[in-house]
Amino acid sequence: MMASVLLLWLAVCLSGTWAVDKGNFKTCDQSAFCKRQRALKPGESPYRALLETMELTNTRLTLQLINDNNKVRLLLELYRLQGNITRVKINELKPLKPRYEVPDVLIREPPTEPLSLLSQDENGVVLSLGAESQRVIVSARPFRLDIMEGRDVLMSLNSRGLLAFEHLRMRKDTQADPEGEKKEEADPANQAETAKEEEEKVEDGMWEESFKSHADSKPSGPSAVSLDFSLPGVEHVYGIPEHADTLRLKTTDNGDPYRLYNLDVFQYELYNPMALYGAVPVMLAHNAQRTTGIFWLNAAETWVDISSNTAGKTVFGKMLDYVQGSSETPQTDVRWISESGIIDVFIMLGPTPKDIFSQYASLTGTQSFPPLSALAYHQCRWNYNDQKDVQEVDAGFDEHDIPYDFIWLDIEHTDGKRYFTWDPHKFASPKEMLQGLVEKKRKMVAIVDPHIKVDSNYKIHNEIRSKGFYIKNKDGGDYEGWCWPGSAGYPDFTRADMRAWWASMFAYDQYEGSMENLYTWNDMNEPSVFNGPEVTMHKDAMHGAWEHRDVHNLYGFYVQMATAEGLIQRSGGVERPFVLTRAFFAGSQRYGAVWTGDNAAEWDHLKISIPMCLSLGLVGISFCGADVGGFFKSPSTELLVRWYQTGAYQPFFRAHAHLDTPRREPWLFGPENTALIREAVRQRYTLLPYWYQQFYQAHQTGEPIMRPLWVEYPQDPATFAIDDEFLIGRDLLVHPVTEEGARGVTAYLPGKDELWFDVHTFQKHNGAQNLYIPVTMSSIPVFQRGGSIIPRKLRVRRSSTCMEHDPYTLYVALNPQRTAEGELYIDDGHTFNYEKKEFILRKLSFTKNILSSVNMAPDAQFSTRSWIERIIILGASKPSKVTLKTAGGQESQVEFEFDASMSVLTLRKPGMNAGVDWSVTLQ
Amino acid sequence: CTCYLLLLLLSLGVSAVEVQRPRGVPLSKRQFYEEGKPFTCLDGSRTIPFDRVNDDYCDCEDGSDEPGTAACPNGSFHCTNAGFRPAFIPSSRINDGICDCCDTTDEYNSGAACQNTCRELGSKEREIMKEMAEIAKEGFLLKQQLIQEAKSGLEEKKAKLAEVQVSKKDLEDKLEALRTVKETAEQPEKEAKERHLKAWEDEKAAIRLEKDKAKMAEVFLELDDDADGFVSVADLLTHSELDPDSDGSFTEAEAQVKHFFLLDKVDTAAFESVWNNIKEKYVSESNADIPAPVETPQEETREPVPENDSEQYPEEDIPEEEEDDDEEDEDEDPDDGDYKTQEQKDDDDEGTMPPYDDQTQNLIDAAQKARNEFDEAEKALREVDDQIRNLEKEISFDFGPGAEFAYLYGQCYELSTSEYIYRLCPFNRVSQKPKYGGSETNLGSWGKWTGPEDNVYSLMKYEHGTGCWQGPNRSTTVKLTCGKETVVLSTSEPSRCEYLMEFTTPAVCQEPQSLYPDAHDHTEL
């Protein structure tokens, strides 16, 4: 939604320009541990595996590693997990005190599979990973891990010798503790260590560092961890959101590494590796043969370096290598550096992109299944001023016949930025307002941020304080920072009891003025602290025994978790929640939607919305969107229209605007533009059945909904870097117009055996080509894949709920083999009853001139009033007769029309219920 | 199935007629839907069997085959709303579970429990309309008055303008005459003043000569160290300031050549020619220790000041800017200062000019009188010009088709809210002043009428008000509605720095019968 007012002033008053003030955020050089770690250059690792310490049980291998420089021992644990995943954990063998291990992100302790020893000698051991001749080779001196399949190395760890583990140590100038000395005397190993340690130079920033005016006391001293991964044969890596950058990650040799540290970045800049609001430490590596993934489970500040031996080479250079046969294998090297915690890394071995998605989903879960209405259009603004304003905007949509489902209230709706309250003048009767929306079958979202106004007359604050739920500062008092309400406390969401209490605050009798059609938006949960270092919390703030340093990237994840739980509980576990968050971490997909934060009304920001959401989708977070129109600044009418057209085809479709921008409800730009926006929104509504089905699939499988082309065409290198177009599921290809004044776009249609049908004209195109498409202001280039069946509801009404019982039109696009298939998923659209098998899942298939609907979930029970009103077959030939057969064996003739010029056959009103078995035969 | 709707309609209040027509079709289009006969889409695009009308499948591109179902995306449904106003709703609102038509006819198959509220709405609306009609009636009468007043006002103004234009002509003539008088009086004045000045200049020259002679005598005595009545070259050479090439050595030869000191020594008379050559440079021996005043140091001491300042406040922009301004000012000031001090010096040296003699003074007084009269006439003409401009502006203002808005000109209307006092001065400006201290904010100056084409005079736009931080300049739209009184009803800020003001005035009242032409029919139901 918004960044800080303070920064706003600073940035504008001092620089006078519209760009991020980079000076407010650290570079690697300004972050002591990153600087320290990055100073290590590839070379021989000081670590050695002590094979004699190896213990192999059925599920895990452990052995000790020793750093020959300082004799500190580490413990390596290696697991083979179900579904072709290898887990590598490295911790200190005997840390001074426990090091943080990330809880709550994995959906369970991952189930293991047996590891077996293939061979062993003094140089190392070879373990079998079971399937497909996969092995792990543990080399002893220096320590490294190689994961092999047959003769190919899939991935190597510490092959560049960059494993580094800063062990916890006593601070020299405070080392007057006699007990500690005694211990050291008693333990010769420790003594050696101490002796060695003394030789190590104490670098700046190990025991304290400062940034701008902020000091970090670093009570635990240096604690960083780092490890390198080599990916032979790989030239394309993806993921590690959130960054405003291209889909394909760039090498970082000549600049900063990609940074993962949840930050409220005011007016973020595009195409750079700076950290943004969320962090998912998951990277995908892909080539035409295989996809692999690395999940680095660490919630501290993290930097990721990427280098490649082919990065600098031109296509010609690569050719020359090939011709001369002197080519080394292309290779990408990656290095992860985190400030604290342990090394806990999940190596997902694919081999297909979809295997990666299911492997990652088996660890962190899948996208939550949202209420259907959340997939419709959302109208937001900072702020809708009062109840009258809400009512007028609501009426405006009806007057201009534009559908919408949700209207949103930003921070100004509260009583003085006290969340869970309403402004007594502007929103004096919230239930009346919400009831007005209920009557239109519409809903509302109100913001609830995690910073709590310090005010002894505020119930929420008093309870949190009295329960001791606030995060503490380094001196033990409640941490206070500056945010929207002024001085604010930050509840410690890492505590389960705190989260339970927070969830209980959403009960209808606690959250006054709330009703079942009121949902929640969590903003500022990085957390944003206007007067904190890098606009966030001091790293030495305390969450119980842990420093904020250890848990930082988890904060937003927990806020959304607790809020979603609250929305579930208030309905007694019946209704699905809808919660939007700005900050996130691995696993956040389980709790709702995310958006790309405070973007700007610029064409480049429209363009970047595609790779930003694609990158999130790859790491499990499918429910992604960008503020339509751009948050900061005022869009030109053309940009606004194009943004609606793009947003209509992205998972989370919400228009939003900054307080200081002119109003931009869709009807304020003249009848022509109102019509263009109306048409874009209507296209979204007709496709809601398809979107809903995609979310159901994503919820089942973890596959991204908005997905890069390479996910479906993994062997086609032409798709590997495309990020100006995307697929929705596997059947719709979208190439939105994102250029100002565009007369045409060139879309790549993948698949040499594919056909693609323009969804507007039904024009057929062959795959594996770059297609130039002339465009006008009304164009949204979208193609349906030949071989697919897509259900739509063409009766667009004022909200998705109004369309619940409406009939379907099936779009059957034939492939060259004249077959097609698809699915139809129907349930009540808003409860968890689908978990109790209350849904309809039909398999639709067209083969041998018969289109049939077959029950894919015979054990599920649900009935619908919806029926099939029309079937449109693209790429068809003209039949002489069309016969419908329904369950009872009854047959009837179906009327049809055939458009010979486009080869489109339209079956008129076959009329069968959408939930039953039927078949239609073309003769 | 083709669904029919039975409608009971009182036509002109005379007799009850049963009209059968497909659901959702307005009476006016009944003839296109003839039962049993093929139906042609209203856009003529195709003809279909009649049983496909309202069969819940869209056959016509214009949606006309499904007036009573939601099958067509672009269809519309007609609610009769007996007792209230009939209405068209988009067919997407049929059976969506939301009651749109007060006669409930849009929700015939959704299970929505709609109540027929047409009578209630009708009577409520009739009440409101009655009230509004009364207001409109009175307002319209007032408006007629306003038009009359504006008309006479305009005529008055035009007459006034004509009148003023005539008086302007007179003034111009008078001014020309006075100009001649002035110029005639100024010529002898100028000559007399010049004469007086010349005499004074002559006198001053004589005085200066006297002084020079005295000075020369004084210098002669000073140089003539041995008081022998002669000054020698050697005496002169002690005055290094007289060295013509300032090379540090003042030689006899130089003295001789440059200062005509042709003889070894000169007496008082011969010294005169030497004096003429040296007097510019000569420094009296009694003053020789005091360094000659130099101009540059003054500048040197001035310049470092801003430099010091800028070092003290290196990051502050504003002080530097202020210094820039100061420097610009100083560039001009020193000239003035020098000039003044010079004049003063002259006055000190040579006294003040004696007063004019009576004759000259009389001439000056006469000229001054002529000038004053001329200036006055000129001022009067300017005032008349202003008056003409204002009148022309007011006459040319678009005060509406009957100039009914003219009465607002020059008036201001206020609305007090909890925080602010809003002030609307029509055709001038809108402003906002905090109730409890603080300065006034300009919310825009008169821009133009911005109502829709068919009702241009329903909205006023005031633009280019005080700028908003990071936003546009403030502007205000004033929405005019019919009322007996001229009042600001409300103000709001729907978008940052874009204000909306609701304003009632009789000037927008329409003739009552033109409101809701069919209202009468229904009042009889």
Main beta-sheet strand count, sense and barrel state of chain A: 10 strands, antiparallel
- Work out the helix count of chain B: 9
Separation, N- and C-terminal Cα atoms of chain B: 32 Å
Rg of chain A, nearest Å: 29 Å
Total beta-strand segments of chain B? 16
GO molecular function (chain A): carbohydrate binding; glucan 1,3-alpha-glucosidase activity
Pfam families (chain A): Gal_mutarotas_2 (PF13802), Glyco_hydro_31_2nd (PF01055), Glyco_hydro_31_3rd (PF21365)
Family (chain A): Belongs to the glycosyl hydrolase 31 family.
Domain Glycoside hydrolase family 31 N-terminal (chain A): 76-305
Descriptive notes:
- The complex is a heterodimer of chains A (923) and B (525).
- Among the domains of chain A are: 372-450 and 505-527 and 550-710, Glycosidases (TIM Barrel); 732-785, Golgi alpha-mannosidase II (Immunoglobulin-like); 807-922, Sandwich (Immunoglobulin-like).
- Chain A is built from 17 helices and 52 strands.
- Chain A is 20% helix and 28% strand.
- With 923 residues, chain A is α+β, with helices and mostly antiparallel strands.
- With 525 residues, chain B is of the alpha+beta class.
- Chain B has a domain at 406-505: Cation-dependent Mannose-6-phosphate Receptor, Chain A, CATH 2.70.130.
- In chain B, strands 9-10-11-12-13-14-16-15 form an 8-stranded mixed sheet.
- Chain A binds chain B through residues 12, 385, 389, 401, 439-441, 659-663, 682, 794-798, 802-803, 806, 869-870, 908-909, and chain B through 55-57, 70-71, 73, 90, 92-93, 96-98, 468-472, 492-496, 498.
